[in-house]
Amino acid sequence: MPDAWLASYPGVREHEPLGPHSWYGIGGSARYFIELADDTALPELIGRLNRDHVPYLVIGAATNTLFATDELPGVTIKLSTTGISVDGDAVSVSAGTLMPKLAAEMARAGRAGLEFAAGVPGTVGGSVFGNAGAFGGEVKDRLRRAEVVDPQGKRQVMTAAECAFAYRDSVFKRSLGRWVITSATFSTTSEPPATVRARLLEVQKHRRATQPIEQRSLGSTFKNPPGDSAGRLIDACGLKGLQIGGAQVSPKHANFIVNLGGASADDVLALMAEMRDRVKERFGIELEPEIRVFGRAPRA
Ligand code: EPU
Question: Which among 8, 196, 227, 235 has most CB atoms closer than 10 A?
Answer without folding.
Answer: 196
